[in-house]
Structures are given as structure tokens and as C-alpha cells.
TrEMBL record:
Keyword list, A-Z: Iron, Iron-sulfur, Metal-binding, S-adenosyl-L-methionine
Pfam annotation, one family: Radical_SAM
Stretches assigned to the Radical SAM core domain: 45-273
Organism field: Kitasatospora terrestris
Domain of life: Bacteria
Upper classification of the organism: Bacteria, Bacillati, Actinomycetota, Actinomycetes, Kitasatosporales
Coiled coil: none
Protein name in UniProt: Radical SAM core domain-containing protein
Database matches in InterPro entries: Aldolase_TIM, Radical_SAM_PqqE_MftC-like, rSAM, rSAM_sf
């Protein structure tokens, strides 16, 4: 097991809130900073530090607002190949892997084996899931994952059915909530309840369906389940731009969030995603960038069944495709990858969560010394 990986622990309580959301601060961890500094000086790494891994493009839900709809149901990484890939990542300098999608990662039949191989190598693992399959892999999820974030987007079965309908006729809301309770009772890592704010409008622009009124109810449910945090996220359009909201709608959400703050304690926290922070502060949906190289693309990459892409924002974008894991080993693919195919100044004008990290990395070559901190979270 790689010692540098074992040093990267999981944070809890207040430390989690203050530090694990600080993407810039994460760059200064002792096991992370040497690679960051190398990239700041124009170097290439033998592997990225973090991999977003989409095992499959298959999903068992049929969400109308799914931002990944264009990349769904285009197959999966084969069972033998993805297990080999897990071993290749285990043999690399990768510190963390996020199982995500695309599709629902736990729909892949090798999901449990992937987790076991990565965990055995000391790689930290996160999971973004719709929660329907948690019960199938609860042993691995409870014992081996740093965190699990479940996308719920509702506080009642009725609203869940409207915004996150299953492909069958049966509502899966009760199953998802029960799965989260099951995991909450056994987990070693963190469990999050993700709430994406969504509205539907008629031809005249009037709101006809919304989940905005269930923020408080969902947050109360999250705490009752045993979640460590409840996260509010803003809706994005298909090009990843934040969707501007009416002032009264923003105020209604903020009022509910304020009430949820009263429920916070050392075990439960209410979080704002970076895109909701942009909406609530009336930040322009267009985020100009004056640099032409994304340094983070050297530190993170996104592996999917249909190709490897520079980042999740460009998943499925032919311009952002840097290889195919079906055709080569991960080491070979990364050695040949050109992460400069995306120009942030022209290709990333949406609000990017890692824009501040890119700005920080650009300053490092001119600094005489940087103060480092002990390792706390490799998910940079």
C-alpha cells in the first residue's frame, strides 16, 4: 500500500465543513503540493491525483432535467476491463477515485470489486449515486468509502416522482431513503443528501412545477436519516451555465436554509454548492477566464465508457476527449494525453468550481515559499 495514500485521512465535524470544501486549501497538503508545484511549472505527472470514473452509462432513473442525458445508455466499461483498470489505478500515483456518472455507477456488476481493489491499494474513494442500489453493496460502501453523496432533490415521494421518476412505474423514493438509513447506521465515511433546485416553466415563463418549497423538509429528513450534511445545488443548463433565479425564489430558499441552520451540530451541516453560491450572490453566469491552460486537468481526469475527458464539465465533448480506456492501459493513455485541448478562456465560460484553484496554481511559480498543511482530503 502506498504510504502517501494512507496519510490522507478523512475529516469530520467542523473541520469537514471548513476544510473539505476549500478546494484551494487542499492544494497545500503535504502529499499533494509537490505534484501541484510540478504542474505549476509546466510539468506533466506520471498520473493524475484524482480520477472521476464512470463505470457505466446505464441509469435506472429517467430524470427529465438530467444534465447527462446526452451521454446516457451508451454501454459500460466491460467487467474484465474495469477490474484491470482498478488494478492499473492501484499501481499508479492516483490518490483518490470518485465513482460517478454519466449513468448510475452502482448499476455496474463489478462495482463491489472495483471498490475492493482501490481500497486495498489505499486509494480514497467517493461515490455519487441515486441511492437505488446501495443495499447491494452496503458492506463495501460502509467500510471502504470516504464519502457517499446521494442525489435526492426532494423531500416527499410526490416531488421525487415528478423530478426523479424511475423507468418502471414503482416509485423508488422509499427504497432510496431506506438504503440511506441502512448505510447511515454502518458507515465509517460521510453521507450526504444532495438537493438540486429545479423548476419547470410554461410557454409564458411561469413556474408550473418546482421543488423549491421542500428544501427545509428535505433537510430535516436528511438529519433524521443520519446524514452528515445536506447540500443545496443550483440547476445548470446543458452547457453547464447556472440558471438565473427570480429574487423571490432565491429568498424562499435562503429562508429555509436559515431555518435548517438551527439544526446544525457537530454531526450535521448544511452546505451551499459553489453554483448555488453564485446564484444567491447574483454572480454573472458567465465566468471569464484569462488563462489558456487548465492546470487542474493535469491533476484530475474523467474516465468513461465512451472515452477519457479532461474533466466532468466536458464529459461527452469530442473536443475534450483525450483517449479511450478500452484501447490502452491507463498509464499508456495518460502518457499520450494532451490535456491542453481545452482552452478555459473560450471553452469554459461557465462558473467552474475549480477556477479559483487554477488561479492559485498560476501564482505558485512566483512565490518564494508556500506554507503546507497536514493531509486531510485528497479530493482536490
Amino acid at each position: 500500500m502506498d504510504e502517501s495514500r494512507t496519510q490522507l485521512g478523512d475529516a469530520v465535524g467542523t473541520r469537514f465543513v471548513e476544510r473539505n470544501l476549500d478546494l484551494v486549501g487542499k492544494l497545500y497538503q503535504r502529499s499533494v503540493f509537490p505534484a501541484v508545484l510540478d504542474v505549476a511549472h509546466g510539468g506533466r505527472l506520471p498520473s493524475p491525483l484524482v480520477v472521476d470514473l464512470d463505470p457505466t452509462t446505464v441509469c435506472d432513473l429517467a430524470c427529465p432535467e438530467c444534465i447527462s442525458s446526452q451521454v446516457l445508455h451508451h454501454g459500460q466499461i466491460g467487467q474484465d476491463r474495469i477490474v484491470r483498470l482498478a488494478h492499473e489505478l492501484a499501481d499508479s500515483k492516483v490518490l483518490a477515485v470518485i465513482l460517478i456518472g454519466g449513468g448510475e455507477p452502482l448499476m455496474h456488476r463489478s462495482a463491489g470489486r472495483i471498490i475492493e481493489v482501490l481500497h486495498g491499494a489505499g486509494i480514497k474513494i467517493g461515490l455519487v449515486t441515486n441511492g437505488t442500489q446501495i443495499h447491494r453493496y452496503v458492506d463495501q460502501l460502509a467500510e471502504m468509502l470516504s464519502w457517499v453523496r446521494v442525489s435526492i432533490d426532494a423531500g416527499t415521494p410526490e416531488t421525487y416522482a415528478a423530478f426523479r421518476p424511475a423507468r418502471g412505474k414503482r416509485s423508488v423514493f422509499p427504497q432510496v431513503i431506506e438504503n440511506m438509513r441502512l448505510l447511515a447506521g454502518r458507515k465509517r465515511g460521510r453521507l450526504g443528501y444532495s438537493f438540486l433546485l429545479m423548476q419547470r416553466h410554461d410557454a409564458d415563463g411561469r413556474v408550473v412545477e418546482s421543488n423549491y418549497g421542500e428544501v427545509y423538509r428535505a433537510g430535516v429528513l436528511a438529519k433524521e436519516i443520519g446524514c452528515d450534511y445536506f447540500e443545496v445545488k443550483a440547476m445548470l443548463d446543458e452547457d453547464h451555465y447556472t440558471v438565473n433565479q427570480r429574487a423571490e425564489d432565491v429568498a424562499a430558499v435562503e429562508e429555509q436554509v436559515a431555518r435548517l441552520r438551527a439544526l446544525e451540530d457537530e454531526h450535521f451541516h448544511v452546505l451551499h454548492s459553489s453554483n448555488w453560491q453564485a446564484v444567491r450572490s447574483h454572480t454573472d453566469a458567465v465566468q471569464p477566464k484569462d488563462y489558456h491552460r487548465c492546470a487542474i486537468a493535469e491533476l484530475r481526469t474523467t474516465v468513461t465508457p465512451t472515452g477519457v475527458f479532461v474533466c466532468p464539465y466536458h464529459r461527452g465533448n469530442p473536443k475534450g476527449r483525450i483517449g479511450d480506456i478500452q484501447e490502452s492501459s491507463f498509464a499508456e493513455l495518460w502518457a499520450a494525453a494532451d490535456t491542453s485541448v481545452i482552452d478555459p478562456s473560450t471553452d469554459c465560460r461557465f462558473v467552474c468550481a475549480r477556477h479559483p484553484s487554477n488561479q492559485e496554481i498560476a501564482l505558485l511559480p512566483t512565490r518564494l515559499r508556500s506554507e503546507l498543511c497536514d493531509d486531510f482530503d485528497p479530493f482536490i
